[in-house]
Amino acid sequence: MRYCINCCIDLLPNDLHRQCFRCRGPDHNNQKCPVCKRENKIPLYTDSKQMKWLAVLEVRTDHCESWNGFFCLRKGKLCSLMFGLIIMTLVMVSYMLTGAKHGLLLIPSPFHYGAFASNPSLMDNESLSDMKDHYQPSKINISYVKDYSSIKLIIDTITSKIEFTTRQRPDLEELRKQEPHMFSVIPNKFLPNSKNPCWYEEYRGNTTTDPYATNSYALYSKRFRIVFDYLRKVFWNHLYHFKDKHYRLRCLPHFYIIGQPKCGTTDLYDRLRLHPEIRFSASKEPHWWTRKRFGIIRLRDGFHDRYPVEDYLDLFDLAAHQIQSVLQSEAVKERGKMNNIIIGEASASTMWDNNAWIFFYDNSTEGEPPFLIQDFIHAFQPNAKFIIMLRDPVERLYSDYLYFASANKSAEDFHEKVAESLQLFESCVLDFSLRACVYNNTLNNAMPVRLQVGLYVVYLLDWLTVFNKDQILVLRLEDHASNMRYTMHKVFHFLDLGPLSEKQEALMTKSPASNTRRPEDRSLGPMLPTTKAILRDFYRPFNTKLAQVLFDDAFLWKRT
Length: 560
What we know:
Layout: E1 2-4, H1 5-10, H2 16-19, E2 43-45, H3 53-60, H4 70-102, H5 148-160, H6 172-178, H7 180-185, E3 198-203, H8 216-220, H9 222-234, E4 240-242, E5 245-251, E6 255-259, H10 265-272, E7 278-280, H11 309-314, H12 317-327, H13 330-335, E8 342-345, H14 357-360, H15 373-380, E9 385-390, H16 393-404, H17 411-429, H18 434-438, H19 441-446, H20 456-464, E10 472-476, H21 477-482, H22 484-494, H23 502-510, H24 519-522, H25 529-550
Parallel strand pairs: 6-8, 6-9, 7-8, 9-10
Antiparallel strand pairs: 1-2, 3-5, 4-5
Helix pairs in contact: 5-17, 5-25, 20-25
C-alpha cells in the first residue's frame, strides 16, 4: 500500500491510513487524482517497504501511529539522536582542525610539537612601518610548543645577529627643527644660585586667568585635579613682581629615574621622597618625554592632542614654589648661599620607550630612529643625572607579565607568550639591525611579552653616546633588596645630598617595600624551568655585554 506524501501530510491531523482515500491503492494515477492535480507527487512506501527517511521524520513529529504506536516513537527518537551525534561530531572535528591551524584551541594538546620557522618573506625594499603584516603569529601553532631544542634554534639565530653598533648623534640644529616650540620655552641657561635647573618666565595673565585651564594632565587625569585645584589657589602668592611685571619660577628635574619597569623604581622613588632636599613631580611617572609630548596616552588607543612642554613644567610647580621660597630668603640673598633643593622625575619608560619616533620623525637610517629621548634632554640639560634600577631580566619579564596580563595568567601561558615573542624578534633581526628591532613600535606591540625591555645594554649604550658615564648611576634591585642602606647611600652620594639624621635614615630604609607582587600573582608560583632556561639563553649575550660596559660581573645574574 502506498500514499501520496503531500496529501497525507495535509491530512496529518486526522488518521493517515483512513482519510487518505483519494491516493490509496496500487492503481493510483496522479493524472486522475484530484488531490495530486497531475503533479508528480513523491510516494511514501509503508508495510515494511523502503521509504524516504526525511519524509518519515517530518510525518513522525506529529503522528507516530503509522509506525505502530510506541515502537514508532522509540525508533524516531533513535534516528534523531544519531543524526544529532553525527552533526556534533562534524562540528567538533572542524573546530579542532581550524583551531589547531590558527592557534585558537582553548586547551593545549600535549602531543603538539613542531619547529619554529623564521620569516624570510620580508623583502629588503620594505620599510619598517610596513612590517605589521610580517609580525603576526606563525601559521604553526607555536603557542603550545614546549620543545626546548626548537626554541633554542631561534635563540641561536638571534645571537648570531647581535651587533652592538654606535649610533650617530644628531646635531643641535636638527633637534631644533624637530621641536621648535620646546626650544622657544626652555632657556639654555638657568639660575646660578640654584642647584636645580630653574628660570623665571614672564606671566602675562591677570588675576581672573586660570593658569592651568588648558593643562592636559589636569583635563584628562582625575588624579591631577586635586593638585591643580590647590595650585590655582596659591598661584598668585608665588609670582615674583619686578618692574610692573609678573614672573613665575619654572623648573626642570635635576635628576631622572629612567628605568626599568618592574625593577624597583617605585620603591626607590618612595624612599627618596623622604629626603628633605628632594622634591618630585606631581606624579611619579608623567611619561612626557616618551609619550605625552607625542599625544600618546596608550599607543593602542591612537593619538590624542600633544601635551605641550608647558603642561610638563606645570607638574613641578609645587616644588618650584618651595625653591622660590629658599631663593627669596635672606640667607640666599645676603650670604650668597645656594638652593640645595632638587627635583626628581621617575618615569620608568624614559630609558627605553622610543616607540613614537616612526610616526613623527623622518630620515630614518635602515629603520633606526634618527632622534632619541636622550638627545632632547641633553640639548636642554647637559648636566642632568640619571638613575637606572635593573634586575635579572628573566625575572623582570615574568613580573612584567604577571603585572600587566589581565586574564588566564599561568606559567604555561607565560611560556607560550615567550615562545611566540622570540619568533617575532627573530623575524625582525633577520632583516634589520638590533637597534631597529629594539625601537620598532610594530614589533614591540606584536610581541605578547615585552622581551625588548630586558635588553638593558642596548639602551644604556645609546644613553652613553650622549651623556658621560659619571652622570648615570646603575643599580641592581637584588642589591637594593639585600642591603637597602648601602644602595641608598650610593644614591645620596651620586646626587650630592646632605647627610640624614639617624631617625630620618631609619625611616627611609626600614619602611616596607613598595609595589611588590600581588598575592593573587604570588599564588601562581614561579615560571616553568624550561621557560627560565630559554630566557637565560636569550638574555645571556646582552648581560655579558652589560657586565663588560659596567665592569661588574654582578650584572651577569649568574646567582639569581
